[in-house]
Structure formats: C-alpha cells, structure tokens
Amino acid sequence: MPSCSLLLCLLYLSCIIPRNHGDTGPEEEHCTGRTKYDIKENARFLLYDVNPGEGFNLRRDVYMRVANLVHHLNEREPWVLVLPPWVRMWHWKSRDVDQDRLKWSEFFDVGSLGKHVPVIELGDYIKKRAPIIDEVYHLQGVVDVTDWDTIMIDRCQRDTRFQQDAQGKWRHWYFGIEEIYAEKFNCLSFFGQLSLMATFLAENTTGKLIFLPRAENLLHGEYGEHSSLFWKARRSMMYAKPLRDAGDRFRREHLGSDDVTDNTVLRDWTTVKSQPRQAVGGAYIAVHLRRGDHLHVRGRELPSIKEAAKHVKKLLKKLALDKVFVATDGTEEEYQEFRNYLKKHQVHQFQPTRQEVGIYKDGGVAIIDQWIACHARYFIGSSGSTVSFRIREDREILGFEQSTTFNRFCGDEESDCEQPAHWTIVY
C-alpha cells in the first residue's frame, strides 16, 4: 500500500475492507458504490465510450446498457464499471466554462449508481492503478445480419482512429488523457443480448481492464414485463443532490411546488418494491419544446410556437391551472414568442446566471430543467426527443398517472398524432 497520511490511509482502508451489505455510515460517501458493493481485490474492470456525436441523454441510456452488462458479468465473477469522464459535447454551448473530463459525480449520485453495480470514476481508477488498458474491443454492427445473437472478432468496418506505435502500444484519444494506452486491439461485430456479450467477455478475455468503444452498439436485453433490470439501472441514476436542490428551490420560489404538497417525496429506490400512482405534482404544466436541429430532423412532427401555445392554453383551461414551466433548446426569441401567446398566464423558465452555469455546467442545467419538468401536474413533450423520454421515466419513478405523462405535441399538419407508447415501470 502506498505511503499516505493517517486520515487518507483510514479512508483508503474503509473503502477496501469488506463489510456487511446492511452496514451503512457517513463514510460511505467517500467510497464509490460502497453502499452496496465492495470493489474486490480480484475484480476486473470494464470501461466504455460512446460515439462522440451522441448527446447527453442518449449517453445516459448507453450507461444503463453497460451497467446491466456489468450486472450479468457479476453473476460469474467480480467486475467493476469504470465511468468514462464527460467531455464537451456539441450542444454544450457555454464556451467560457471548463466542461472537459467532468466526473460523473457532477451530474449523478455515484453512490446510488453503486447500489446497482460496482462503479469507479476513471480518474480514481488511474490514481489506484496503472493507466493501461489490457484489451480493446471496438464495437460495430454486423454487416449481414442473419441471426440474432451474433458476436465475432472481425475486420474493422471503418477507421477507428486507433494507431499502433513503434513499441506496439495502441494509441487513441482516450478522453484526452495522454498517458493511457492499450496493449491489445480488436474490432468486434455484435448483434444480440447483453448476456451474449457477458459470455464473450468472461470466456475470451483475461485482462484486468477491458475497453469497449462505441458502446451504443449494445442493446437493452429486456423489454416489457421482463424489463425490471432496465428499471433497476434507471432508478439507480439519481441526480446529484446539488442539482436536485437547485430544481427544488426553483419549484418552491416560482411554481409553489414542494415534494410534501405534491406527494413526490423520493425514497431509497432499493427499498421500493411497488409504487402506487399517487403523485399529484406541482400546480403547473411542464412543456418540453424541442427546437434547434430537431426541426430539421422531425419538423413535421413538431408544432410551430403559435400552435404549441394554443395547445397549452387549452390544457391550462382543462386542468384549471395557470402556471407553465418551459424546458426548451429554442432561442430566446422563440421563448418570448411562446410567452406572448400566453400573456394571461404565468410562464417560467430556468435561466441560470453565468455563475450558476459555471457551477452546474450545461449538463447540470439540463438536469435541473428535467427535474423541474418531471414534478409538474401534467407533462407534454416533443416527438422523438430523448429529453422528453428521460422526463417520462422520471415521472414513472415518482408515481404519476400515465395519462399525465405520455403526451406529446402534434405537428401543425398532424390532425391526430400518435402519442408516446407507455413505457411502464417494472419493479
């Protein structure tokens, strides 16, 4: 064990000495995942990455796939999920804010993640172990899909940006951490269940740290009534407390909303075995009004600002409400236009100061938006939006009636558009 101060040594020992899962204590906040899992001495580690072009909320979905892959691996031997740092994404517009290599704890309660599978931040892993990846399996689709459950080491279908240097080490961007390199590299064609990937990793790899780039090629393994594992991963993704606190403060000050009044008090998800749909929500409608690039991709399925406001006005009258919360990636002009159409009503938006953006980062601001939206009496989202999808999941976790959750705006030319499928929580 390396030399350290007495305090650091005690913290280190508290993280590695096994204890009963039922034991809890304040020191567990310092140990990633300590509330349920210990990182065992013989554990192996799985790191992953996602296509750089993917957005924040899609990356959250990929996390759940990889977490459940690690869940399957732990049925065979101890594995730990290494959390890749968040790097600046194209839709994080605050250029004067440092948003490179952010830890997961900026956005999520890492202790809660660790109640589902053992996890560790990449930076913490590197501090404890050498920054060497033993084996890389660059995931790609199967060119000729003839069978479900196909997996094989294959030729690379496109340039992977991995390069082997003169010493035989595989170099790559690796989240901008220069000292990382890999000993072995392969492309892996895959189409199938997570359990198939778990079998491959357990039976065909021996390294301590395995890296799966392009993990969006993994698929959720369970659906419908068999999706309790998906929902365990999803429920474990508690937002970081400072972000929840900021959202709760906004709800109290601007929307007259709090958890006791709204019947949305959140319990430890590991103790919840069923949830009656008794959430009332704050006395406001929450709107996710997707604009930006989505207008080019799904323009026919999105309303004009005028039609969106007209629909919200009808809902306010129907539900006898007067307040609207707007989450949108639209411009300030679009937001003001929406407000002008609803002059007789209170329309609110979370607009952080520059200092708050520096604290919460763009990803945190997005989470605060979603946290406020998911507590509304009624929610209406945008077609095909992962943001709307995540808000609906949060409302399922909180116990809202589905009729108040699974709603979307119709495009101006859609007379009676199809509403979102009910992705119902399973315990």
Automatic annotation (TrEMBL):
Keywords annotated in UniProt: Carbohydrate metabolism, Disulfide bond, Endoplasmic reticulum, Fucose metabolism, Glycoprotein, Glycosyltransferase, Golgi apparatus, Signal, Transferase
Pathway: Protein modification; protein glycosylation
Signal peptide: 1-22
Uppermost EC category: transferase
Top-rank taxon: Eukaryota
Catalysed conversion reaction: L-seryl-[protein] + GDP-beta-L-fucose = 3-O-(alpha-L-fucosyl)-L-seryl-[protein] + GDP + H(+); L-threonyl-[protein] + GDP-beta-L-fucose = 3-O-(alpha-L-fucosyl)-L-threonyl-[protein] + GDP + H(+)
Gene Ontology biological process terms in this record: fucose metabolic process
Xref: Pfam families: O-FucT
Major localisation: endoplasmic reticulum
GO cellular component annotations of the record: endoplasmic reticulum; Golgi apparatus
Example of a GO MF term: peptide-O-fucosyltransferase activity
EC number: 2.4.1.221
Compartments reported by the entry: Endoplasmic reticulum; Golgi apparatus
Family assignment from sequence similarity: Belongs to the glycosyltransferase 68 family.
PANTHER family attached to this UniProt entry: GDP-FUCOSE PROTEIN O-FUCOSYLTRANSFERASE 2
Protein name (record): GDP-fucose protein O-fucosyltransferase 2
Record organism: Magallana gigas (Pacific oyster)
